[in-house]
């Protein structure tokens, strides 16, 4: 079997997605997600201009060799654009291999390690009573793990919380500006979890995302005050470019720590893992080089008691979700999967075998990844440039969003 053609499909059924389709001379095709939120066309161009010409004529069965060719052969290593492009090729090749062998991809990864992939949904409140209602509503839908975020009084717009239609939008800027005040947040967050636990008890896992807003000592302070509420994890308390900065957090709290939705490679977290400075690594199949590299990362983390809790926001397409679930069902130290919301239009563009039931996600039994793209439908949703918000502190300094 040879790769006969590869093409990049950009579509926007509610939000932008970049998809790579690889076709073969035997009529089997595979697809991979290459979406990099807010920088979509950079990956589309990298694929179309530099990667696709290297694929044609290759044997799609040689997944590892193709991965190494695209990683080492480019000379310029890592980075989100490169690694998302490699991930898309990798996913598509696993999809083709599964279809060629008439088996779901998880079977090629060692078979099932569990019966379903535990997932968590998002409860985002305007007030604490509103957040509690959102948690209860997800519990009614079967969720066993829920991330709780809430508007902090005095901070107009902030990550992970509901916003008004024009909130933070300046007419002279193409992006939204959010506000941030660490002191207000640090006082509020323990109160939020005290009231949520009071209302719903301890039978559901609760998670919380600080979205890279704190310093290590602030994160230690917060983690210590959240210990009584038994969080599943405190996520992205501090940006992890300086991996050793997590030592200081660890010295001050036993609240489990997760980080890494922006990681591209094992090299972004090898020290965090080796020194057991985190409990969960959040690298994703789409931004960390596909199934091939994410498996290596997870295998490296396993003896250090670090498990995966892969990023899964709505900007990861249903193709990524499919690949994440074949990884998650088969990988022993895959602990949990974030499950972001996709619009009905997105589900229609990407028909898929994976499903949610009773708090767990299931990859399904279709051969390959069990997901496809309806190209005719996709062509009706034109790309629209969009940006992630930018965060500014009360004195006007740009912060981490
Ligand atoms: Mg996050």
TrEMBL record:
What's the Enzyme Commission number for this chain? 4.2.1.8
GO BP term (any one): carbohydrate catabolic process
Q: From what superkingdom does this record's organism come? A: Bacteria
Gene3D superfamilies membership:
Enolase-like C-terminal domain, Enolase-like, N-terminal domain
Report the residue ranges that make up the Mandelate racemase/muconate lactonizing enzyme C-terminal domain in this protein. 128-256
- The source organism is Actinopolymorpha pittospori
> Per UniProt, which keywords does this protein have?
Lyase
Q: Which GO terms describe its molecular function?
A: magnesium ion binding; mannonate dehydratase activity
Name assigned to this protein: Mannonate dehydratase
Cross-referenced InterPro entries: D-mannonate_dehydratase-like (IPR034589), DgoD-like (IPR034593), Enolase-like_C_sf (IPR036849), Enolase-like_N (IPR029017), Enolase_C-like (IPR029065), Mandel_Rmase/mucon_lact_enz_CS (IPR018110), Mandelate_racemase_C (IPR013342), Mandelate_racemase_N_dom (IPR013341)
